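As described in the Methods, two query proteins were run sequentially through the folding procedure within a single session, without resetting any intermediate state between them. The first query and its resulting structure tokens are shown here.
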Amino acid sequence: MKVELFCLCDAATEAGGKLNVLGAFDRVWAREAPVTVAHCAVAARIRFSRIEEGTHQIRITFADDDGSLVLPPMESRIDLRFANQDLSVPINLIILMPQLKLPRFGDYTIDLALDANHLSSLPLMVRHVPEPPQPQA
């Protein structure tokens, strides 16, 4: 299998087998923690070869830089069946995360695994925006 796309984005949809991604990002700026990201999604497109036909377990984890999970692991099973002579088939995966709460400033990672094998990681950096200086009276 091959990961063709794996990103954190503002929004993602699927229509007619097409994966539509809007606003991929890896950084969030905020004035105070905890930080809430109003709307975001994780989008992935994974291509499988005919030899990989069968059932597979997908797992996505979201952890802070200490390895503590920020969200419960997101797991799904896929059952790949090839109906014709195609040599490969893509799977689009979208996980919507409304009101994502990040407990503190720092670095986070989103990891993608298939059948307990790590495939890819995404960084998410949550940074502090300092208050603007107050004008002198």
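Immediately afterward, the second query was submitted; its sequence and tokens are:
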Amino acid sequence: MKNIIWLVVVLLVAAGVYLFTANGGDAQAQTAAFRNISPQEVKAKIENKEDIVLLDVRTPGEFNGPLGHIDNAILIPVQELGSRIDELAPYKDKEIIVYCRSGNRSRVATKILLKNGFNAVNMTRGMQGWNQLSK
């Protein structure tokens, strides 16, 4: 009976270690690697003429729609990002600020870019937040 208990304990520990490493290890380190930036900070970078890339991950209809887009942004919808990631290769050494309507799709896109070795940052609140800057 004692041997069975030890076997169960060892299997549970092994399963825990497997799940921990399969999910990328330290969750706190993953959070630290994922960065957010506010619309105010993005505006300051643009005004300071910092060498950044703006990536809009909405649909073309949204890009040209009522919320508008940030000048000089590249449009690659999030659902196409995986198959079009090579288009961003020239910007691999630059900070890529990713945005969408509200900050949800851009969070997904930022994670895709980070997994592919890009220096990507998610703009919180998206175009909704950006447009509030001028109010």
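The chain has a mean pLDDT of 85. We note this only descriptively and draw no conclusion about the first query from it.
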